[in-house]
């Protein structure tokens, strides 16, 4: 398996890049594993990586119905930030932002983490009050976030329209400077390569049809396209389809699956220095290293498993972007796509044990789980290995929807990218 080093780069450059070996083998299922992870997105692959590197568990299969990283991990707009309102969320997302800083070095794989700053625009009095509340709460939690005046927003992001007669006037903004973006595919590839190098089987094109249980109710394994595979523990990270997979084990999850869309423009020279989020109008923008504007919108307002989404939402998003950044008015859009997000009532994830012994779930990331990939995978691996939650994910139980101890980021921000 290829290992990246200055020497291997030089050697392969001199031999015309014809001798690079595979990044990870195309594994076929064994009869039995210690842990089966359903879903080879960043969260599933990351959990396998941390199980292998931090808990010494390597007899693991990560199984995906498609190709690895082909779910939301490879479809998102890559916004990374940790300026959430509640203490529980701040701890979880900031743990992740901490891990992002050195992830390329940890994986020996360039995930292109760029902390270019995320600026959240306030367009009305409610936004101003809500974001200032976030700034204060974040500071109390040791999370960087500061308030910028309208003029300071313009200075930080010159393409911004701050005209007072604009349809969406900018009344200021909250800036998290440690926040930014990363290359989404590389995150999946880096974790897959790191996990496979330690003996983890990454099995693609193999749908999990059902989770099978023993007579005592505990997990027995999974039925797949390639037959039954026995497992001591099963962990589910099948974003968008978690409720369906978990229902086969008799666990009902409080999730609604909805399409979320994104689009990219034709590439242009570097013009956009940061990430801008406009929650009130549901439009987000950054510029990729290739030069494309990466634009995201809000979820379609209906439940669906169709990975397409409707055009009215795209039209709304593009018109909002044109209003907030008039210099992009005449740019052409190249591609649009959607992913299926699974949304909890409080818009916070569920990471932990389930009522079924030895069955674990990491789900409900809605529109904002990419940023959490390293942090969540890290604490999920802990939970699987020790059969108990890590202190960081302990509040993110399934049970909170019964007890009412919600972590209501939905009410706090109404958006979670
Ligand atoms: C358009 C869009 C924009 C987004 N923007 C952002 C953003 O800017 N910032 C942010 O933080 N988050 C964002 N998100 C959310 C983020 O992408 C997800 O929360 C995160 O990537 C989820 O990762 P995952 O590993 O849990 O799931 P996924 O990457 O979706 O992986 C789950 C995998 O499970 C597999 N699977 C499903 N069912 C089965 C089955 N029965 N058997 C086997 N495998 C199965 C799927 O094929 C898939 O590969 C966005 C999402 C979308 C769609």
Give keywords.
single chain; 417 residues; alpha/beta; FAD/NAD(P)-binding domain; D-Amino Acid Oxidase, Chain A, domain 2; eight-stranded mixed β-sheet; 12 helices; 22% strand; binds flavin-adenine dinucleotide
Low-confidence stretches: none
CATH level 4 superfamily of the largest domain: FAD/NAD(P)-binding domain
Q: Return the string of H and E elements.
A: HEHEHHEHEHEHEEEEHEEEEHEEEHHH
Bound molecules: flavin-adenine dinucleotide
Return the structural class: alpha/beta
Total number of domains: 2
What distance lies between the first and last C-alpha atoms, to the nearest angstrom?
35 Å
- Oligomerization category of the chains in this entry: single chain
Helicity level: 25-40%
Q: What's the CATH class label of the largest domain?
A: Alpha Beta
Radius of gyration: 21 Å
Number of strands: 16
Q: Please identify, by name, the CATH architecture of the largest domain.
A: 3-Layer(bba) Sandwich
Shape: globular
Mean pLDDT across all amino acids? 95
Number of helices: 12
What summary fits the major beta sheet? 8 strands, mixed
CATH fold node name of the largest domain = FAD/NAD(P)-binding domain
């Amino acid at each position: 398996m290829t290992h990246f080093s200055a020497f291997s780069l030089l050697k392969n450059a001199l031999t015309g890049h014809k001798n690079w070996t595979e990044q990870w083998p195309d594994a076929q299922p064994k009869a039995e594993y210690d842990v089966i992870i359903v879903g080879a997105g960043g969260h599933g692959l990351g959990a396998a990586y941390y199980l292998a590197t931090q808990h010494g568990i390597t007899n693991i299969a990560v199984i995906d119905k498609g190709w690895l990283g082909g779910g939301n991990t490879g479809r998102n707009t890559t916004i990374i930030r940790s300026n959430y309102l509640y203490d529980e969320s701040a701890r979880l997302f900031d743990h992740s932002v901490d891990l992002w800083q050195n992830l390329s070095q940890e994986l020996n794989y360039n995930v292109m983490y760029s902390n270019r700053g995320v600026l959240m625009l306030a367009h009305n009095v409610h936004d101003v009050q809500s974001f200032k509340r976030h700034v204060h709460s974040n500071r109390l939690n040791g999370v960087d976030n500061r308030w910028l005046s309208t003029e300071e927003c313009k200075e930080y992001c010159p393409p911004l329209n701050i005209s007072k007669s604009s349809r969406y006037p900018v009344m200021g903004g909250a800036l998290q400077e440690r926040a930014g973006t990363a290359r989404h595919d590389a995150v999946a590839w880096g974790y897959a390569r790191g996990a496979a190098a330690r003996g983890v089987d990454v099995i693609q094109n193999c749908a999990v049809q059902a989770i099978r249980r023993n007579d005592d109710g505990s997990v027995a394994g999974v039925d797949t396209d390639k037959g039954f595979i026995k497992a001591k523990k099963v962990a589910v990270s099948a974003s968008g389809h978690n409720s369906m997979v978990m229902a086969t084990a008799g666990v009902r999850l409080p999730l609604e699956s909805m399409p979320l869309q994104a689009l990219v423009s034709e590439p242009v020279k570097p013009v956009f220095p940061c990430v801008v989020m406009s929650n009130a109008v549901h439009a987000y923008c950054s510029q990729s290293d290739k030069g494309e504007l990466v634009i995201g919108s809000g979820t379609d307002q209906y439940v669906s498993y169709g990975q397409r989404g409707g055009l009215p939402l795209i039209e709304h998003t593009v018109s909002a972007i044109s209003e907030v950044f008039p210099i992009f008015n005449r740019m052409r859009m190249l591609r649009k796509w959607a992913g299926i997000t699974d949304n909890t009532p409080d818009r916070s994830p569920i990471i932990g044990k389930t009522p079924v012994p030895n069955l674990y779930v990491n789900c409900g990331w809605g529109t904002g789980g990419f940023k959490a990939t390293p942090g969540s995978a890290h604490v999920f691996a802990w939970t699987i290995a020790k059969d108990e939650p890590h202190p960081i994910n302990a509040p993110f139980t399934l049970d909170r929807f019964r007890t009412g101890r919600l972590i209501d980021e939905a009410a706090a921000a109404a958006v979670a990218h």
